[in-house]
From TrEMBL, chain A:
Biased composition (Acidic residues): 334-346, 375-397
Keywords: DNA replication, Nucleus
InterPro entries given in the database record: POLD3, POLD3_sf
Region entry Disordered, spans: 215-257, 269-440, 454-507
The keyword Nucleus is assigned to this record: yes
Protein's UniProt keywords contain Electron transport: no
Any single GO BP term: nucleotide-excision repair, DNA gap filling
Name of protein: DNA polymerase delta subunit 3
Main location: nucleus
Subcellular location per the Swiss-Prot or TrEMBL entry: Nucleus
Listed Basic residues bias regions: 425-438
Molecular-function GO terms, alphabetical: DNA-directed DNA polymerase activity
TrEMBL record, chain B:
GO molecular function: DNA binding; DNA-directed DNA polymerase activity
UniProt organism field: Gomphillus americanus
Domain DNA polymerase alpha/delta/epsilon subunit B: 223-451
CDD domains: MPP_PolD2_C
Descriptive protein name: DNA-directed DNA polymerase
Keywords recorded for this protein, A-Z: DNA replication, DNA-directed DNA polymerase, Nucleotidyltransferase, Nucleus, Transferase
Compartments where located: Nucleus
Domain of life of the native organism: Eukaryota
Sequence ranges assigned to domain DNA polymerase delta subunit OB-fold in this UniProt record: 43-180
Length: 507, 497
């Protein structure tokens, strides 16, 4: 037990030459802040017994200071009796602010952060000291105290994924029973910040997992048999894959699990519903109702879908352990970064397999579609040409959001995140357009010039003609296949799209 | 002597403290919403009109009481309804709006005419001219009259304040002032008045419940006020903010501090959370760069560090303490008063604690307007990020911030110098800056130093004034006791060599 924190501190401070504050220690070892402060103290003491001066400590002193410096400073001002302090910023802690209790010495609570060599001097300033503790340990005396702030920044980035409402108790942060976070953002903001952090280093590797997963998801909804075969195929595929990508033959199960969960995640903000149970448990249960599930983090309240018995129980359990799930999800996200290379190896193969399997399952599914709550343009098996395939995938990604929106308006805010993830799969490009540019010339006249400008566009703006016609064709044929009422729903569900295509289409 | 933390780990479990909770409501008085409020086409004249119309009746009453039997020689002071009705040599009193004619005050028309010739002069610290060229006028809908007299030297007046003056017009056509009357403090609501009103409106049972919720005597609840965090994202300004953060979460320091901090039921940030960021790229370079279009945001033109740091600061505190965030002069929102709330989208981590847009109840994290009004534990709070007071400072002699704050309350106008020298939204159908109810606590952020006092009004009003120092310069925050309204300063210090 003793060696636990000593090991950590030795590793961090002595070996890796880092600064460790009590907050970092309490988070790293999941202990109360008071305990962390004592650990720092004890470690500092032990090390200095072994080798004096080997470690540097920064202390925090808290207590009451008496401030009597006021009167002199006041005279230099314009003689105001009740101005106890010069208006210029004071230097360090010598000059003293206070209340307007005139020249009387003012008692003020002061917290001072101080290097060990100045500790006694700092203590001398205090009327009474209520507590002293080690704030941080450093391998050498810090030249600039601001270095300590970098540790706080580090805590913020490293422990960003921790749920403060769960872990703060451990660290001894003052609890608040009244805290309320808007359910709209709570999970989303976490994901977002994670993505932001990631996107700094690497582009989001989204498209492939989405395609593969959504497709198999649809296959499953339509036909349990096709689903199980399909998912078992992908499963076996992913089991075969790791040896190809190398190293861990021992952890065959793990990478595929990670990968699948991460793609679930992406889908969750593309608003496609994960059929997470089947994939996660890798039992390939008939997942007829799964499409209605929201992802684990947002599925707290109601689940509109009639689930098969075992699934319902499972989801119940999951709801209860939601926080754990969140935690896991974050881990997956993190691990997923590491596993990216592996995935890249796996993905194409799976994709091929899945798309090969897809038309079959689709055509099988055809009669079933009518009973599905979500009309599915993809169910039109004959249209499966390569170019349209991609279109469909996008539609598929969009599609499942409709039932959710209808039943739970609350989630509609998620919509704004849609472009974030989809954008990976979107067609992007640059095109040359003529732009009018107005400038003022030397004599003050306005001159309008037309010049060619390269502009980037994405698919939700105007897309090139062939693509657009292909898309509308799909929509219409899907509509025809799905029948009157549903056809309307399909087009109504994607408002304005037809119009904008007409507008930009060739005349 | 507080050295219990200087020992070996004791391995015992420590129970975390539970924070006290105060009741809170936040007024939406200064929010601009709806299309009709986003229009900047209209003139400012309406604001002065409303101000005068709102304050005239009570001022008339005060003046009539005091001056109705005022005599000089045989002449009794008459009330004149319009400024233009004043006749030379007649003893009379009038009510109108003050206008300060100061040569050094920025002047829009002059600015425009000079625009093409010279670069703008640096902003002045004071508008007062050294050789007494400043003129004071009183005006109403009818016209304008110059005010003279020694009594004017003894009283603080700025453009936009509404006053009653008594005197006579002299042979030069100026009005010799004998006495001046201010509207004085507005009616002050009783503590818990809002809650009581609500309770009786809804039903009797909730009334009882609410009363039982109320602190009887000593609850010890407190509110922390801070302003001018001034986060720039540059090196070297974060350590004290970290200390503040750790203090408020109860982590830093010992058990007694933690005990005290757990009583702080809310943090109010009064403006300037973001500091002035030095602009590095020179103008020419920026102009040429504009022609190059970049996808997404241009990292060279936009520095996300300040808001990220602010977001982290807030997000660390929010699980433990609710926060009211007022913007200030430097914050990334509108510049015109009333400044609109900092948009939650800029604070991706903290926004989880905001309420849904346009929700009735304020969120746990209440990003709100500047100025702001609200009730905490039944006390009416009114505060701003400092601009109204900092602008008044330019009109008057000296640097007595408390005096200026007191004057604002006695003038009953929260931002009198708007729209003259303080940018503000051109309200068309109301004048929200008129103070219709006096607060119990009036705080102003970003003042040179911490100051406090209590002022009293004619009908037992009593207002606690708090001038908040800039945290970045002083490292000070103010803890206000909600039982006694006594403020206390806590300072954070970093002792370098």
């Amino acid at each position: 037990m003793v060696s636990d924190y000593a090991k950590y501190l030795a590793g961090a401070i002595i070996t890796e030459n880092q600064i460790v504050t009590y907050r970092l220690l309490s988070r790293a070892l999941k202990v109360h802040h008071s305990e962390a402060k004592r650990m720092l103290y004890e470690f500092h003491r032990q090390q200095n017994v072994k080798k004096p001066g080997s470690l540097h400590a920064t202390y925090l002193v808290s207590g009451i200071q008496m401030l009597t410096a006021a009167p002199q400073a006041e005279l230099s001002q314009n003689g105001h009796a009740d101005v106890p302090m010069p208006s210029s910023p004071y230097m360090s802690s010598l000059a003293a602010p206070g209340t307007n209790d005139e020249a009387e010495p003012v008692r003020q609570r002061v917290l001072t952060l101080v290097k060990e060599k100045n500790l006694e001097a700092a203590k001398a300033k205090y009327e009474s000291v209520s507590s002293i503790h080690v704030y941080s340990l450093e391998p050498n005396a810090v030249r600039n105290m601001e270095m300590l702030s970098a540790v706080t920044q580090r805590i913020m980035t490293e422990y960003i994924s921790e749920d403060p409402l769960v872990h703060n108790k451990t660290y001894g942060v003052i609890q608040n029973s009244g805290v309320k976070a808007s359910p709209l953002y709570s999970s989303l903001s976490l994901i977002l910040t994670h993505l932001q952090r990631r996107s700094g280093s690497r582009p989001i590797p989204a498209p492939l997992p989405i395609k593969e997963e959504t497709k198999s998801a649809f296959a499953k909804t339509k036909d349990p048999k096709a689903a199980s075969s399909d998912s078992s195929k992908t499963l076996s595929k992913s089991k075969e894959a790791p040896p190809g990508s190398g190293e861990q033959a021992t952890k065959i199960g793990a990478p595929s699990l990670i990968k699948r969960e991460s793609s679930d995640l992406f889908k969750s903000f593309a608003k496609a519903k994960p059929k997470s149970k089947a994939t996660k448990t890798e039992t390939a249960t008939p997942a007829s109702g799964d499409v209605h599930m929201k992802d684990a983090s947002s599925a707290e309240d109601e689940d509109p879908s009639p689930l098969p018995e075992p699934d319902a129980a499972q989801s119940e359990a999951r709801r209860q352990t939601r926080l754990e799930q969140k935690e896991k999800m974050r881990k997956w996200m993190e691990e997923e970064e590491d596993d990216d290379e592996d995935e890249d190896g796996i993905e194409p193969m799976q994709d091929v397999k899945a798309s090969a399997a897809n038309p079959k399952s689709k055509s099988k599914a055809e009669p079933n579609v009518k009973s599905e709550p979500s009309p599915d343009p993809e169910s039109d098996g004959e249209e499966a040409t390569a170019a349209e395939e991609e279109e469909e995938e996008e539609e598929a990604a969009d599609q499942p959001s409709e039932p959710i929106d209808a039943s739970q308006p609350k989630t509609s805010d998620d919509q704004e995140e849609l472009p974030v993830t989809i954008s990976g799969g979107r067609r992007r490009g640059r095109r040359k357009i003529m732009k009018k540019k107005m400038t003022r010339d030397a004599e003050g006249y306005l001159v309008t010039k037309e010049e060619p400008v390269w502009e980037s566009f994405s698919e939700d703006e105007a897309s090139p003609a062939p693509v657009s016609s292909g898309k509308t064709k799909i929509a219409s044929s899907a509509a025809a296949a799905a029948g009157g009422g549903k056809a309307k729903k399909v087009t109504a569900g994607r408002p304005g799209q037809g119009n904008i295509m007409n507008f930009f289409g060739k005349k | 002597m507080g050295e219990y933390l200087l020992q070996a780990p004791i391995g015992s479990e420590q129970k975390p403290q539970e924070r006290l909770i105060s009741t809170y409501r936040s007024s939406r008085k200064y929010h601009l919403h709806g299309d009709d409020h986003k229009n900047y086409q209209q003139q400012y004249g309406d604001m002065y009109f409303f101000r005068l119309a709102k304050l005239k009746p009570s001022l008339k009453q005060i003046a009539a009481e005091d001056w109705s039997d005022f005599e000089i020689g045989d002449e009794v002071a008459q009330h004149k309804d319009r400024v233009l009705d004043v006749r030379q040599g007649e003893l009379c009193w009038i009510i109108g709006t003050i206008y300060m004619d100061m040569p050094l005050k920025p002047n829009v028309l002059e600015d425009i005419s000079k625009d093409r010739w010279i670069s703008a002069p640096p902003p002045r610290e004071k508008y007062l001219s050294p050789d007494d060229q400043d003129l004071m006028w009183i005006e109403d809908e009818s016209g304008r009259l110059r005010l003279v007299g020694t009594v004017l030297q003894t009283i603080m007046l700025v453009t936009g304040s509404i006053v009653g003056v008594m005197g006579t017009e002299n042979s030069q056509g100026a009005f010799e002032v004998i006495d001046v009357k201010l509207p004085d403090l507005a009616r002050q609501p009783q503590r818990w008045e809002m809650e009581d009103g609500d309770a009786t409106l809804t039903n009797g049972t909730s009334n009882k419940r609410r009363i039982s919720e109320r602190p009887g005597g000593n609850t010890g609840r407190k509110v922390a006020l801070v302003s001018g965090l001034g986060i720039t994202g540059e090196e070297g300004d974060l350590l004290r903010i970290d200390l503040l953060m750790e203090y408020l979460t109860g982590e830093v320091s010992g058990d007694d501090d933690e005990q005290a901090v757990s009583k702080i039921s809310r943090l109010i940030i009064a403006g300037d959370s973001i500091g002035r960021v030095t602009v590095k790229a020179d103008q020419d370079e920026q102009l040429t760069r504009k022609s190059v279009k970049k996808y997404g945001y241009d990292a060279s033109a936009y520095n996300p560090a300040p808001t990220t740091h602010l977001d982290n600061f807030l997000a660390t505190l929010l699980p433990s303490i609710p926060i009211t965030l007022l913007p200030g002069e430097m914050d990334p929102t509108s510049v015109a008063m009333p400044q609109q709330p900092l948009h939650p989208a800029m604070l991706p981590r903290s926004r989880a604690y905001t309420s849904i847009p346009l929700a009735e109840n304020p969120g746990w994290f209440d990003t709100t307007t500047n100025p702001w009004e609200g009730d905490i534990d039944g006390w009416r709070f009114m505060g701003n990020g400092g601009q109204p007071i900092n602008d008044i400072f330019k009109y008057v002699e000296g640097d007595d911030r408390l005096d200026m704050m007191e004057s604002v309350l006695r003038w009953r106008i929260g931002a009198p110098t708007a729209p003259d020298t303080l940018w503000c939204y051109p309200y068309q159908d109301k004048e929200p800056f008129v103070i219709e109810e006096s607060p119990h606590v009036y705080f102003v952020g970003n003042q040179p130093k911490f100051e406090t006092s209590i002022i009293d009004g004619p009908s037992q009003q009593s207002i606690r004034l708090i001038a908040l120092p800039k945290f970045k310069e002083t490292g000070e925050i103010v803890i206000l006791d909600l039982d006694t309204l006594e403020p206390e300063v806590v300072r954070f210090d970093v002792l370098e060599d």
